[in-house]
Specification:
The longest helix has 35 residues. By secondary structure, the chain is mainly alpha-helical.
């Protein structure tokens, strides 16, 4: 059963992130979580964990990209900026 919950939560989180990206609704996952809470606390918890992990990864990736861009800009020859 635990494996089913995790796989369902992961798929639902993935789908939610896609809809959030398409619509710009940054807090849509909260609403989905509320719907889950009404019927399955276990699935809600697993889903919110999946969402948090994905959002954290996204934020960390943006940070790394920004840092690499800053590093490249600092290393670029002065005349080519």
């Amino acid at each position: 059963m635990a494996g089913s919950i995790e796989s369902l939560a992961a798929k639902l989180a993935e789908d939610t992130m896609k809809v959030m990206d398409q619509t710009g609704e940054e807090r849509l996952f909260v609403e989905v979580g509320k719907v889950l809470a009404a019927s399955s606390q276990s699935l809600e918890e697993a889903y919110l964990t999946e969402i948090r992990v994905r959002l954290a990864e996204r934020q960390a990736r943006r940070f790394l990209i920004q840092r690499m861009n800053e590093l490249k800009a600092a290393q670029a020859p002065k005349g080519s900026q």
